[in-house]
């Protein structure tokens, strides 16, 4: 089986992580946990539309990565540059949102760690597929 397609399991973890609690903030001495979509919605409501757009963009790039994996499993040819673009976009956005959330007073939750773990799996699988030359 194509290791490039197997590496896309990491994107499935990213998608699952977006539905899990990602950030926790304390509001009126009460912790509030937000998944990725609640975070994006709150960002739009608070006037920080760029954070909401970035969250949706990272989710969309994970969906694209998963679709690439499905296409590779059915033996369709997909340029490898699209793989790299999906990984780099998603990784960069998640790291930015994590750092920005921590500096803004939020606590990172399990969803963000699952997303980072999934992206590391996708990245390692991508590197292995390049070294094996089986794509």
Report on this structure:
With 135 residues, the chain is mainly alpha-helical. It is built from six helices and three strands. It has helices at residues 3-6, 9-19, 36-45, 49-73, 80-103, 110-132, and strands at 23-27, 30-34, 107-108. Strands 2-1-3 form a three-stranded antiparallel beta sheet. The protein is elongated, with a radius of gyration of 16 Å. The mean pLDDT is 88.
Keywords for this entry:
mainly alpha; elongated; 3-stranded antiparallel beta sheet; 72% helix; 135 residues
Distance between the termini: 10 Å
Order of helices and strands: HHEEHHHEH
What structural category characterises the helix and strand content?
Answer: mainly alpha
Mean pLDDT: 88
Q: Describe the biggest sheet?
A: 3 strands, antiparallel
Lateral arrangement of strands in the main beta sheet: 2-1-3
Helix tally? 6
**What is the strand tally?**
3
State Rg: 16 Å
Please estimate the helix content. Answer: over 70%
Topology:
Layout (H helix, E strand, L loop, with lengths): L2 H4 L2 H11 L3 E5 L2 E5 L1 H10 L3 H25 L6 H24 L3 E2 L1 H23 L3
Antiparallel strand pairs: 1-2, 1-3
Brief summary of the model shown:
The chain has helices at residues 3-6, 9-19, 36-45, 49-73, 80-103, 110-132; strands at 23-27, 30-34, 107-108. The protein is mainly alpha-helical and 135 residues long. The mean pLDDT is 88.
């Amino acid at each position: 089986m194509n290791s490039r397609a197997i590496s896309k399991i990491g994107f499935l973890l990213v998608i699952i992580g977006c539905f899990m609690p990602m950030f926790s903030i304390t509001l009126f001495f009460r912790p509030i946990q937000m998944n990725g979509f609640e975070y994006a919605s709150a960002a739009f409501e608070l006037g920080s539309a760029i954070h909401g757009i970035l969250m949706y963009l990272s989710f969309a790039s994970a969906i694209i990565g998963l679709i690439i994996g499905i296409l590779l499993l059915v033996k369709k040819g997909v340029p490898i540059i699209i793989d790299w673009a999906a990984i780099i976009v998603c990784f960069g956005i998640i790291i930015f949102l994590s750092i920005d959330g921590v500096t803004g007073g939020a606590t990172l939750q399990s969803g963000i760690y699952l997303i980072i773990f999934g992206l590391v799996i996708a990245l390692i699988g991508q590197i292995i597929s390049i070294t094996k030359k089986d794509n």
